[in-house]
Recover the amino acids of this structure.
């Protein structure tokens, strides 16, 4: 969790063409936390609130195309929808494994291979089911002059965290790529049944 006294700083900004369209890539730091932002279009202009996806880093899914989760599919769906809408933001946080880090995520995988679900595995390792907070995304949105968003998410905790930080969630847009792989079905079922995720 960021130090309450820490100030948000913009580390760098550059053009960032992608196969989905043209973005600006921005790097932000808040204490020891950091995040990369992909910004498409003018997100502070008048009009309907921009689309926003807060995406936690998932090396196994985003880079290696793991079938244990749907993270890469959610990432790609978000980028596609943001460019189709004409403006929006993707905030990519360094929160691997719902905030427990990459090595602990691999330890959780090993426990899952022995029969634990994703929530039980995190708890057996001494972590909360979800160890993330959203102070950094809220600070980034304020910095960019964004006070209301259409949130691409299935996680009600993200809605609550943004609202508590003074960012209006004007609409929750489902981020549910179809079809889910057979390997990811238990993972998705646990998110819905134990963590209250929406469809």
């Amino acid at each position: 969790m960021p130090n309450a006294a820490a100030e948000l700083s913009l580390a760098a900004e550059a053009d960032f063409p992608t196969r989905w369209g043209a973005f600006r890539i921005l790097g932000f730091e808040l204490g020891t936390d950091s995040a990369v932002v992909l910004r498409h279009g003018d997100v502070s202009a008048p009009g309907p609130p921009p689309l926003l996806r807060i995406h936690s880093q998932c090396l196994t899914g985003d880079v290696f195309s793991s079938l244990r989760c749907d993270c890469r599919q959610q990432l790609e769906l978000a980028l596609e929808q943001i460019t189709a809408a004409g403006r929006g933001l993707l905030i990519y946080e360094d929160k691997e494994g719902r905030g427990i880090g990459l090595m602990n995520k691999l330890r959780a995988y090993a426990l899952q291979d022995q029969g634990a679900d994703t929530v039980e595995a995190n708890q057996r390792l001494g972590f909360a089911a979800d160890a993330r907070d959203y102070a950094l995304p809220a600070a980034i949105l304020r910095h960019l002059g964004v006070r209301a968003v259409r949130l691409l998410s299935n996680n009600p905790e993200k809605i609550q965290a943004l609202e508590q930080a003074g960012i209006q969630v004007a609409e929750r847009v489902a981020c549910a790529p179809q079809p889910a792989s057979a390997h990811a079905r238990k993972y998705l079922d646990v998110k819905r049944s134990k963590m209250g995720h929406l469809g």
Q: What stands out?
A: The longest strand covers residues 8-17.
